[in-house]
Amino acid sequence: MNRQRSFIGFIVAGAIALLVIAIGGFYWFFAKSPAKLIASTSGSDAAIFVSKLSPVMVSLLANPDSLQALGREEELSKLKTSLFAKSGIDYKQDIQPWLGNEITLAITTLDIDRDLENGQQPGYLLALATQQPEKSREFVELLFSKRALAGANLAVEKYKGVKLIYDNSQPEQDLLAGAVVGEGFVLFANEPKVLRDAINNVQAPDLNLTSSPEYQKATKELPKGGLAVAFLNLPIVAKWQGLELPEQLYNSQIISLALNPKGLLAETTFLTSSEIVSPSAPLSKPVGALQYIPASAGLAISGSNLSNLDNSDLAKLWRQVTATIYGSGEDGVSRLAKPLADVQKRWGINLPKDIFSWVQGEYAIALLPQKEQTTPHWIFVAEKSEDVEQGVARLDAIALSNGLSINPLTIDKQKISAWTELTTATKKTNVKEGASFSIETKVRGLHTTLGNYEIFTSDLETMNEILTAKDNSLIDNPNFQDNIAAIPQPNQGYIYLDWTKSQNLLERQVPILKLVEVLGKPFFNNLRSLTVSSYGTDTRSLKGGVFFKLGNS
């Protein structure tokens, strides 16, 4: 049964869009007048309406009108106009007077009627905090009166002391159910059953999300003054996507958004019933290997001890997340780390076995996007040790077995080993003389030793940039310093992405990103870079954060 839900669709899209606009402009507000924005310190109050089996709940914990100070009045005005255009509702007159400091959207169930024959019909619940219950009741009555005048058949029901109003429409028409519950919330849903379940969840506390031990633990990780929060039940999310994950280590995830003078920090905690161990000791400062990564890098990954990476909890999380998004972890790697996947294929090597296994000290990996090339240049830096020397010798042997030659070079008085390949090139002269041939040398990779580090690059230009631009490294770059300053220490290292340099590359590797950018235009227009890190010491959870550096130029 295919049911169009135009009004609830606009409400759902509006709730998401408000959150995106908030993300894109929060840092402006923080710099100007943070005291005016009222934000929750304890998570969502509407969680009492949501089942603990809900796959996803997202909450904006501030009044949308306080976002007017963000310099986004035009976007908010357009959103409010489109959101209520088909309902005949005037936001300023009918909603603004009573709307409180929370908007929560939840997918309450994957299939409302649990009938597989008519397909999945997810249940949507929208909870709007009200600061004037009587005015919000008038709004609900007005909304459904307008729908009745438009031809909808209405039904009124008293359910456990709560008045429910809903459409009794034909399947091809849009459906909506609404109620004001107690003194605190206005609820909307795409089916009356969703509202009844929400009321049951309040009156039987063991059914709602707040009774979930994992949710209780997750909310304790929320920072004070969070502006938005999302909670995901990961096994049910995977089921929703029709996936059977080969490895299910993490059961749930909570994400919170908090302000920072230079951007926005999104902190996330993944919870598990298993005991987890960090792959390496936490770091109290950025790794020294970053001094050899040029500031022109579009992506940089740094940390210590790659030898246990494949069996680490971060790797297990990566496989679980990419399998949820792409259907398999391997497909996720091939899309998001295509240059490294290409290296594996061209050389006939296995990165974890042939390279990562002998890196037990510091490391840094970087990609340098090239304007005229689809494939970026790459850099790999590893702290020297006996194992690293043996690993380099093994790579030389692999190069020889693949028909490459190892030739010594000198750049700026620095001795370098180059893996090269001889190829022939033809050039047509004239009909009588035929074609002429020439032999060309192509560099397939280089490595050298600088200080206490072994450095590998994809090409001569990149190696030359490292050797001749020693005072222009990423670790000294002010933008990078701003990013890592927002990440708590100690931590497990950083994944740094310069959005302005890597946007085109990422769009080619992840086409759906273009759609995300359209939906979140205010945010992406201001995004300059982002940094990801893992930190925290709880053996039953994995905590990390993403810092979004925002700017207007």
List the helices and strands and how they pair.
Elements: H1 6-32, E1 56-60, H2 73-83, H3 91-95, E2 99-109, E3 123-130, H4 133-149, E4 154-159, E5 162-167, E6 177-181, E7 185-189, H5 192-203, H6 213-219, E8 228-233, H7 234-240, E9 252-260, E10 263-271, E11 299-304, H8 313-326, H9 329-336, H10 338-347, H11 351-354, E12 362-368, E13 377-383, H12 386-401, E14 405-411, E15 414-430, E16 434-450, E17 453-457, H13 460-468, H14 478-485, E18 494-498, H15 499-509, H16 513-519, H17 521-526, E19 527-535, E20 541-550
Antiparallel strand pairs: 1-2, 1-8, 2-3, 3-7, 4-5, 5-6, 6-7, 8-9, 9-10, 10-20, 11-12, 11-18, 12-13, 13-17, 14-15, 15-16, 16-17, 18-19, 19-20
Helix pairs in contact: 1-2, 8-9, 9-10
Could you please describe the fold and organization of this structure?
The protein is of the alpha+beta class and 553 residues long. It has 2 domains: 6-222, no CATH class; 274-408 and 445-527, no CATH class. Helices cover 32% and strands 29% of the residues. The radius of gyration is 28 Å and the shape is elongated. It starts with 5 loop residues before the first helix and ends with a strand. The model is unreliable at 1-18, 20-38 and 331-336 (pLDDT under 50).
